């Protein structure tokens, strides 16, 4: 127990006479070295020595706020009024700030300490998002270990999120625990979630279908928005880049009557500056005009029962293509462009029933309308998803029980030949979970889910988890479970909608199934010098049956879909190191090594567009005396197999090792204000380096000068020496090069 929380030799606000302030910085009564002690609004400050002693001289007369701050410990501050020439002594005792002990809900649908959760959950806060400011959650995840935002098209820049090497459709994205980001919005809707409204992001790697159903096969990302009562009264965050991108977040928090709190936010993003640095006469970055309006209500009820409502409307107009394209050419075959109009509405809520038992009702509804053209190919699609779920949380002696009943309504229709009639289905589900406290150090979790899909019948997904916690700072976990996924090709494969490839569905597709085992070790270290280190290591193995992946290789002019007649395996190991160092430096370093492959007819092949290793880092240094912090973030990716069109295709068959790195400076010496700026993509890396071209036949996007044989194969001609067709799907990294950015944040509490 801490023997001393905070000691002052004088009252917090009092009149003294001083020229020098001296003191000792401690934690739990022991000396704490290298603490930054400074007077806010001045350049007067000091760093405590190895014995925790500090001294600040030549203090000007007047009222001052003196602050003691050290990364990994709770900041302490007090107010003094200085006059005349007497010296004073002020001692600070800084309680330790816990790391690796955040409250999480995603792994078990219950609020629990991360160290106590039987399911490993990674947590990323708003402070992490600020280290490399981005206009949307899709780009913000680029520095999360084992998670990669994958751009699927060089022209319209849409994409999805890969976890541990698995394709985007295997990742379930939740907002406040509700599965409202799926299907069309997995490809197009992630860009509309403003970072300023996010409280934290929780990531579970590995199947979670026993709690969340279909799509949670590879893992899930739960985006938790701020509680209205915890948000600033007013906030604004805006920045611009050297490419002409402008991002603006505005919002406020207010009380409505005596029983409601409202959080309101608006995100606006605009990029209207066509750039073609790689010389193919196509835009390197899609032009966008986007607005997203969000509001969240929390209502006060008796006995602190929960009732919240949230809603969001989103509109985006994006296009990419020929540098001479305008909206007048939309849908025509004169000048090529890809134009996407997206309209989306979301509603979600949580209501705790007014009964003795803890029974929660959660619901969500989304309406997504897509109006797109890819050259002269139209893609019109509508998706409506309704979701309702009751959960009953029942602690019972050594058992923590959770029972649930859910129903999901899904309506989907598009203009492609593969969807002759609208797909409309209701999937009812039942699930149960029992977290058993075997002893103080041992916990066992058992769970199972039953879903009924009229297209595929009964689907059962069990899971088991075991946690062993021999000390307060060590956690061993073993998780095993199964997952399932029902595929909708045209909401998941952007490649099926662009270029000249024909889509071939060779059979009636069966739902995919997976079995996964995950081992996890979590450890906290404390050094004598005051550093805190967190280590999180995981190893996993996932086996898929009935795997559905697009076949780009059999016929270069086709994308063939069928169930894999064989096996597919993903396995690997990852590690995260979170270190708070005594010098005031904080490091977050991660690395993943993985093997993702399919075996058919005894032939093993690496999965396309999947790296074999990846690394991420975020380093922060804070100089409290000058109110300045430096953030250095980045990632590195190993080679991945790329989709070539033919044996003659001169582009690289495998990507090189590549890295995106960023640096940022932030000044917070003005009350309620942060000024930040820096450089993105310091190495100026773009995928055209070392390649003759990126987009195949960008000079002939409608294949007017391509000669085909009777089987539809492109022929080698004088105008087409490699026998290629137009194809923008050869993409593994952003085309956007180095650029500066400058921004300002204002927050009023």
TrEMBL record:
Annotated Gene3D superfamilies: Carboxypeptidase-like, regulatory domain, TonB-dependent receptor, beta-barrel domain, TonB-dependent receptor, plug domain
Keywords noted in UniProt: Cell outer membrane, Membrane, Receptor, Signal, TonB box, Transmembrane, Transmembrane beta strand, Transport
Main subcellular location of this protein, as a coarse class: membrane
Residue stretches making up the TonB-dependent receptor-like beta-barrel domain: 264-682
TonB-dependent receptor plug domain span: 115-219
InterPro entries membership: Beta-barrel_TonB (IPR000531), Beta-barrel_TonB_sf (IPR036942), CarboxyPept-like_regulatory (IPR008969), Plug_dom (IPR012910), Plug_dom_sf (IPR037066), TonB-dep_rcpt-like (IPR039426)
Membrane topology annotation: Multi-pass membrane protein
Protein name according to UniProt: TonB-dependent receptor domain-containing protein
Compartments where found: Cell outer membrane
Native source organism of the sequence: Algibacter miyuki
Top-level division of the source organism's lineage: Bacteria
Stored Pfam families: CarbopepD_reg_2, Plug, TonB_dep_Rec_b-barrel
